[in-house]
């Protein structure tokens, strides 16, 4: 199958999931997780009209994002996101190339990003990454510490929070995976009610190739899809 066909298949899956969830497909943004893909493939997806892309390694951001042609993207909303674990010493390198950092999960990283914004007299959009699956290896702030963490953002006004992000449990157990996604949604709702999230910070970035339907049923507004569009990745 071609890239265009894979993208159509994903769009159909999103539409079917929205129908099942009685949601409007317009509520769901599709981010293409482009790790390991060459610039030409990323450019091809953008030229097909898919302008929301994310990388999870700093090196791939600085290698590839500068090579994407603005000419082909002028006609559509185009956003470059960072979606992986971010070391504070890599902030400076990726900063010019990303409008949104989805993986803000600790005060030291938030402060570093804020400092970089101040230095350049600009702002950045962020998501707060939460670890809802209780797996030791996963990045993200512990749900019990989320509300304290959110309070620190009153002192970091150049970071504009769009919502919460999580990497779901990597399992076939539908109920266990959906429990995690439901937890993220309820944390968002409670934080909004308490005024810990700004009123417009309603987004939920959750769901990947294998479980986007479950994430949409639980309220995802942004799904991050890689292998279902680009094919299986070679083992690193
Ligand atoms: C790679 C990646 C995805 C996409 O995963 P697939 O299973 O390939 O769809 C989503 N989120 C993050 C943070 C990733 O690194």
Task: List its traits.
alpha/beta, eight-stranded parallel sheet, 9 helices, 8 strands, globular, binds pyridoxal-5'-phosphate
Give the total of beta strands: 8
Summed up, the domain count is 1
Judging by the overall fold, what is the CATH architecture?
A: Alpha-Beta Barrel
CATH homologous superfamily (4th level) name: Alanine racemase
Mean pLDDT: 94
What small molecules does this complex bind? pyridoxal-5'-phosphate
The secondary-structure class comes to alpha/beta
User: Fraction of residues in helices?
Assistant: 25-40%
Biggest pleated sheet: 8 strands, parallel
Rounded to an integer, what's the Rg over CA atoms?
17 Å
User: The CATH topology is what?
Assistant: TIM Barrel
Beta-strand percentage range: 15-25%
- Mind telling me the CATH class? Alpha Beta
| Order of secondary-structure elements | HEHEHEHEHEHEHEHEH
Order of strands across the main sheet: 7-6-5-4-3-2-1-8
Instruction: State the distance separating the first and last CA atoms.
Output: 24 Å
Modified residues (N6-(pyridoxal phosphate)lysine): 35
Domain Alanine racemase N-terminal: 83-234
Cofactor: pyridoxal 5'-phosphate
Keywords: Pyridoxal phosphate
Give an overview in words.
The structure is a single chain. The protein is of the alpha/beta class and about 240 residues long. Helices cover about 35% and strands about 15% of the residues. The protein has an eight-stranded parallel beta sheet with strand order 7-6-5-4-3-2-1-8. The two termini are about 25 Å apart. It binds pyridoxal-5'-phosphate (PLP). Pyridoxal-5'-phosphate binds near residues 83 and 210.
